[in-house]
Amino acid sequence: MNAKHCIAMGLIASAAAHAAAQEAVIGLITKTETNPFFVKMKEGAQHAARLQGAKLLTAAGKSDGDNAGQVTAIENMVSAGAKAILITPSDAKAIVPAIKRAREQGVMVIALDSPADPVSATDALFATDNFKAGQLIGQYAKAALGGKPARIATLDLFPGHPVGIARHNGFLAGYGVAGIDARTIAPAKSAEVVCMADSYGDQGKGQTAMENCLQKNPDINVVYTINEPAAAGAYKALKAAGKEKNVLIVSVDGGCAGVRDVKAGVIGATAQQYPLKMAGLALDAGVAYAKTGKKATGYVDTGVTLVTDRQMPGVDSRDTAFGLGACWGK
Fold it and tell me: Over the stretch 130-180, which tens digit does the pLDDT of each residue have?
């Protein structure tokens, strides 16, 4: 090997080492590995990481509400050299100390989908406007009932979660209940709501919640659900009781399975959100920080669209053909 060849090989090795040193390491922590919403979010981050030439570390809690699992994931990612961490907090308050420790070590932290409590605990929030998502399906339900008295069941997330509160309150505000806005910090109540139950966003728990609500008031005619798995559970309970044809179910998410349920008439309307876009934009912001030191700040609204095949006058919506083409930003 001559001297020129040695120099060339050395330059190549040096360039490769420099490129490796410049590789942005980004972490993504979701609430669970199994919820289709978070599966799609992970796909969005993986796609953006490939385009950016970044290294993506991923982790999730064992179940929705597993704060300890998310804390461990943050600590592991900081140790692995992550410059930015994207997280959907399972417990908006309990996760804050771990986020604070990561930020003190120079890691930018972006909340996805769900804000931390306080929101300022993270550098930025990339999320659906969950109050608006609730408003859209509330407006739709009001129009669909056409002036008939409502007997509403709300199948919520679980106590204290900001996304659950925002969607619940948005739904009631959209339905026309006075005195509710995006700053309302507790789940609102009204005379129309005859049952409130927690579904944890789970189909099985949603079915049980609906069964309990029917025992409380068998004349329920509107069901608000936190997401489409809970809506599927509610429908199963209604069908078992022979009531599925006389009850309107509205929901939030707009996943492909959920839009198919709208098309089949299981769900009357759903507010579609875009986790693929949410994760992709946040990943790009993480890479930008790793390369330039410029932090993302504030709130980035990643969009929401009402999807239904039964349009209502005065309520802006798109049909399921659109919804299936856009489900979760595919």
Answer: 999 999 999 999 999 999 999 999 999 989 888 999 999 999 999 999 999
> Which residues have C-beta within 8 Å of that of residue 231, sequence separation ≥ 6?
155, 206, 223, 225, 249, 251, 258, 261, 266, 267, 270
pLDDT in tens, 167-198: 999 999 999 999 999 999 899 999 999 999 99
In angstroms, the CA 220 to CA 234 distance is 12
Nearest to 275 by CA among 149, 126, 67, 115: 126
User: Cα(40)–Cα(205) distance, rounded to whole angstroms?
Assistant: 22
- Residue 27's pLDDT is 98
Tell me how far apart the alpha carbons of residues 74 and 99 are, in angstroms, rounded to a whole number.
Answer: 8
Largest CA distance in the chain: 90
Residue holding tokens 């900001």? 162
Across 92-120, average pLDDT: 96
Task: Quickly tell me which residue has 């309150």 as its tokens.
Answer: 169
Q: What percent of the chain has pLDDT over 90?
A: 86
CA atoms within 13 A on the CB side of 164: 23
- Distance, CA of 76 to chain centre: 24
* DSSP labels, 106-133: T-EEEEESS--SSGGGSSEEEE--HHHH
Helix-, strand-, coil-residue percentages of the chain, each rounded to 5:
50, 20, 35
Are 192 and 262 in contact by the 8 Å Cβ rule? The answer is no
Opening angle at CA 131, ends 127 and 136, nearest 5: 110
Q: Which domains does the chain have, with CATH numbers?
A: 3-128+275-296 (3.40.50.2300), 130-272+306-329 (3.40.50.2300)
